[in-house]
Every structure is written in structure tokens, then in C-alpha cells.
Amino acid sequence: MNAISPVACATAPTALNAALLAKYDGLRVPRYTSYPTAPHFTPAVGAERYAAWLAELDTAAHAGSLYLHVPFCAKMCWYCGCHTKIVARYAPIAEYLGHLRREVGMVADRIPGRLRVRHIHFGGGTPTMMAPDDFESLIALLRARYDVTADAEIAVEIDPRTLTREMAEALGRAGVNRASLGVQDFDADVQAAINRIQPREQTEQALEWLRANGIRHINLDLMYGLPNQSVASVARSAEIALTMAPDRLSVFGYAHVPWMKTHQKKIDESALAGTLGRWEQFAAIAGVLTDAGFRPIGLDHFARPDDELAVQQAEGRLSRNFQGYTTDDAEVLLGFGASSIGALPQGYVQNAVPFDQYAQAVEAGRFPTGKGLALTDDDRLRRDLIVRLMCDLSVDVGAVAEAHGLDAGAFDADLAAMADLVADGVAVVSGRRIDVPEPARPLMRIVAARFDTYLSTGAGKHSRAV
User: Fold this and answer.
1) What is the DSSP string of 28-84?
2) H helical segments located in 194-274
3) Bigger pLDDT: 200 or 3?
4) Residue 88 DSSP code
5) Do 402 and 264 share a structural domain?
6) What are the Radical SAM core domain coordinates in residue numbering (predicted)?
7) Contact 124, 71 (CB under 8 A)
8) Residue 179: is its pLDDT beyond 50?
9) CATH code at 97?
10) What CATH number has the domain bearing residue 399?
11) Could you report the per-residue pLDDT of 437-460, keeping only the tens digit for each?
12) pLDDT tens digit string along 53-103?
């Protein structure tokens, strides 16, 4: 078995080998942005159950977060795994925003009292395809219907290729204070292979406009495992990204699932790296970022040491939700728009994915809930275990069990069953504490999956483990 070439990186898997990577690459495990995960949601939780859950909310005890899904793009990126639609006219977007505004009001009407909101996130698709006036009007509606705190984080995902100066000005006026820009890769050959031509100057111009309008908290998204990428090319992209002075970077592995996303069939599979190549690409990016002083955060994020994401991780307070790693610990997440997912103390809900089903429900005055899942006590317990592993690479299983009213030894059998992971160096078990060693950081999902009692019924719907 050949060892991976060392890479100067705090997260580089130098202690693992190609055979071990191949062994775990055969597994398909969730990214655990929730537990239980979305493939296990069912129609048993629909509009009536969601309405009842909203009516039970104690707004004095719970703060909330809002997620708004705007599923439109100007052009399809062939790697995309999102629920989005390509449009050439503004009319479909304007019509959709009408439904979105109505849903925002319907939910607010159902909640007793006025929900305090500390985080708002616009995702997609490309939320900034909204007209500037429409975006400002939507923010004004959210402020009118919910108690948006003065220090609330308002974050928007942005495609630099379609951002205009006028939209950047509107974002600033609306109080947006964090922007996440999709980059993926700066290499021209890679961009051509994924149908996303985005010159470096385009990204730099977008950043200039955003910062000029007071939006100084910047995230950049990079990817590895894309066609035509190499260790050298991804390292170069990371170096270019650093010149743009972001606060955070996300480094995602491309999930090739053409049976689910048919446009991915346009990607040349022969140009994709294998397991070892993907691993080396991630390690190269991580090496560049950690050498520059960025802290590795969980599975795939990096942040400056003084960024709140890094601070919360150091203090054991980091959270994880459907948007990934976050400083948002709200137990109430209201999702708006087609396919959006929300979380309440009672469970999860997801809106209908097809646009027509979503629109028809809202126009009829019904919540567009398509499916969901009511949480059990066991779900909440396992969710806490998985979240701490995903955020901290460590969890005191006995302490979590006791916090849920169980005996500290409730998971002793599960810990004993991790002997194979321990032997492979993927986990360390000391008493009732599990640690994921730093070299095995990108394999943490495999450790978390050992607490997932649903996995056997939905494994085929998840991405590759490596």
C-alpha cells in the first residue's frame, strides 16, 4: 500500500494510505447538515402538521432564523446539485417572488407572537438575480413581519458573473453584512469543463462593489474533484482566492450523481480524479489555506482565527444546519420557497420541490409543505452526538447520553463496535469519548454514520464518503 505524498497541511491525510481511502470510498454517507437527513423525510408530515407546529412555538423562549430559496440561474453549471431553474426572462422570477412574499406572511400569521430573528440567509440558485427593488422590498417585508435584531447576520449567496453594481448597492442598503461568492476554480480549463466561465477579474469586481457598500464579511467557495483539476491547479486557485482577503472559505468535493442530476452527464468522467487524486487535491487546498493562517473548521470550512466561526469552534459552540457550519444556534429555522427545508423543535419540514406544486399550494392559501419528519427523543440524542462530532471532531458520548436522561453507558456497545475504525486510524476511543484524529478529518462522516440508525434505508441517496 502506497502512502499519500506528504503535503504541508494541518488537515493533510498523510497517515492514511490509498488502500484505506479506496475502502471507505465505497461508502455513501450523508453530509449531516441535519439528523435524521432529508432522504428520510416523508409525506406523513405535511401542511397541517407544520401549521400545528408553528402555532405551538414559544416565541419568548426561542429565537429564529430565516432561509429563503431563490431557485433561478442564468446558466446551468454542470457540476450543480441544487434545485434550480435556468431562466432568460425576469417574469418567472417576479412571479415566484410573489409566492415567496405570500408564504412569508402566511407563516408569520400562524406563529403566536413575533419571532425574534438573528440570522437571515438567501440561497439558491442565484438570489441576486432578483431586481434590486424587489430584494429591498423583500427584506423590508421580513423586518415588518419578524423581529429582526439590529445585529442580525444577513447573508446572501452570489454568482459574481451576474452581480451588478446596482444590486450591490441594494444589498448594502438592505443591511446585508455577509456575502458568499461561488468561485469553484480559477483555472480556465476547469471552468470550461464545468460550463462556468468566470474570469478572476469578474470575481474581483464583485468584491470591490460589495465592500464599497459596506459588505465586508466575505466567504469564497472552492471545489475539488472537478474535471481537469490537478493538485497544482487547485493549489493555485486557493492562492488566488487568498489574494481576495476572504474571512472564510468553503472547500467542497464535487459529488458526481448523474442519475440524480442529469445535466452532470455533460461532464467527462474520464477527466475526474479518482479517490486518491481527490484526496490529494483537498490536502493541497487545505495546505495553502492553513499555511496562510486559516483554521480548519469541521469537514470543509476554513476561517481566519478571529472569525466568529473559528472562535465558536474553539469554545465548543459551533453549530451545523442545512447551510453547513454556522454560528447560528437557533432551534427554529423557517424555510421559504420551493424545496426549502425548515427546522422546528418538533421536527423538520420541506416545501414541495416542483415549482408548480409550491406555487399552487401558496396561491390556495395552504402551506406548501411536501414532506418532513417528527423527531423522537432518540433522534434528538443521536443528532447531538453527530453534530458535536461533525463540529468538534470529538464527543463525550457518556456525557451526551446523561444530558438526555440516559445512563452514561447507553452507547457502550456502539463504541465497542467501532474497533474497525480504531484499527484503521479513523477514530480513537478513550473510555466513552470518541476523537477523530486530525489526519482523518475528511473521514469524520464515516464515524458520525455509526450513530445513524436510518442510514441503511437511504444510503444510495448520499454522496461518496471520500
Assistant:
1) B----SSSS-GGG-BTTS-HHHHHHHHHT--TTT-EEEEEEEE-EESS--TT--S--
2) 200-212, 231-242
3) 200
4) S
5) no
6) 58-295
7) yes
8) yes
9) 3.80.30.20
10) 1.10.10.920
11) 988 888 899 999 999 999 875 444
12) 999 999 999 999 999 999 999 999 999 988 889 999 999 999 999 999 999
Domain check: are 399 and 311 in the same one?
no
In a domain, 278, yes or no: yes
Helix H or strand E segment including 370: strand 369-374
For residue 171 the three cell numbers come to 444589498
Residue 389 belongs to domain spanning: 376-461
Helix intervals (H) in 111-230? 132-145, 165-174, 188-193, 200-212
Q: What is the mean pLDDT of residues 250-272?
A: 92
Q: Identify the band that residue 17 occupies on the pLDDT scale cut at 50, 70 and 90.
A: low
pLDDT at 10 over 70: no
Asked whether residue 114 falls in the same domain as residue 236, the answer is yes
Q: Which amino acid is at 201?
A: E
Nearest to 154 by CA among 127, 175, 125: 175
Round to whole Å and give the CA distance between 351 and 342.
8
Question: Is 44 contained in some domain?
Answer: yes
Provide the phi-psi class of 184: left if phi over 0, else alpha when psi is between -120 and 50, else beta. left
* Bridge partners (DSSP) listed for residue 73: 86
Does residue 56 sit in the same domain as residue 129?
yes
pTM for the whole structure? 0.92
| 357 found inside a domain | no
Q: Are the C-beta atoms of 169 and 213 separated by less than 8 Å?
A: yes
CA distance 208 to 212: 6
